[in-house]
Write a structure and sequence with these properties.
Blueprint (H helix, E strand, L loop, with lengths): L14 E6 L5 E5 L4 E5 L2 E4 L11 E6 L5 E5 L2 E6 L2 E4 L10 E6 L5 E5 L3 E6 L2 E7 L9 E7 L2 E6 L3 E7 L9 E7 L6 E6 L5 E5 L2 E5 L5 E3 L9 E6 L5 E5 L5
Antiparallel strand pairs: 1-2, 2-3, 3-4, 5-6, 6-7, 7-8, 9-10, 10-11, 11-12, 13-14, 14-15, 15-16, 17-18, 18-19, 19-20, 21-22
Length: 247
């Protein structure tokens, strides 16, 4: 392991998010220093807006044309010519956007404050869903996509699976299915592997929907509070990040 934070002023902030794009570049989202790009072992700071917004970076996504989008505590933006360009939309500007992902229709899906989820294409907001459209009491808490499916994690133990049949976003464009995560509540993050496994990181544990339709609740993780993210390596090992106990 190499700790870049010990090497001068390369990384002088805690890291909230990492993303490898289609060109092999590593995008680094910091807690209070904005975005840094690592390419060919060279770190480049991306210029933030002059009002000091977009310093706390939550997530990244990429569209088919190679545009990198940024989720932050100040809303959403895209990167152009080495600078962060905020999206000017009153539904999103100034909101905390927790997660963003791209679907097979090249739409960017986002999960924001107050239990809302929406879709953006060509920098225009297509729709904004509220929690009560899908859940009786739970709030939308996280989001993930896989091909033409969008998954809404919640503050409870339900996940809504929206399977889209076209580029529309109203109820006639998708079918709705609910998944349960049993004792795993408050879905901090949903991660979907290339093979289609759904990794559910929760405040109270860890749950997996495998691509073959089987499920598993990892009771070994019940004593680990606040699992914030997960990934599966090429051998099938699961790696979990917890704010209470590390990795």
């Amino acid at each position: 392991f190499r700790n870049y934070s010990l090497e001068g002023d390369i990384i002088s902030s805690s890291i909230r998010s990492l993303y490898e794009d289609s060109k092999g570049r590593l995008w680094i989202g910091t807690n209070d220093k904005g975005v840094i790009c690592l390419e060919n072992d060279i770190f480049t700071a991306i210029t933030s807006p002059e009002d000091y917004s977009f310093l706390c970076i939550r997530d990244f996504a990429e569209t088919s044309d190679g545009t990198i989008y940024v989720a932050s505590n100040s809303g959403m933006a895209y990167i152009s010519d080495g600078a962060i360009v905020p999206l000017d939309n009153e539904e999103i500007s100034g909101e905390t956007v927790y997660a963003i992902e791209t679907d097979s229709y090249d739409r960017i899906w986002l999960c924001t404050t107050y239990g809302r989820a929406g879709a953006i294409k060509n920098n225009q907001l297509l729709t904004m869903y509220t929690s009560d459209m899908f859940f009786a009491t739970d709030e939308i808490y996280s989001i993930a996509t896989k091909d033409n499916k969008v998954y809404l994690g919640t503050s409870g133990n339900q996940i809504a699976q929206l399977t889209f049949t076209d580029e529309g976003t109203d109820s006639t464009s998708y079918s709705l299915k609910y998944l349960s995560t049993n004792d795993v509540h408050t879905h901090n993050r949903l991660d979907i592997t290339a093979d289609g496994h759904i990794l559910v990181s929760g405040l109270t544990g860890f749950y997996v929907y495998f691509a073959d339709g089987t499920t598993k609740e990892y009771t070994e993780a019940h004593n680990v509070t606040s699992i914030n993210a997960a990934t599966m390596d090429y051998e099938g090992n699961l790696w979990l990040a917890s704010s209470s106990t590390g990795v």
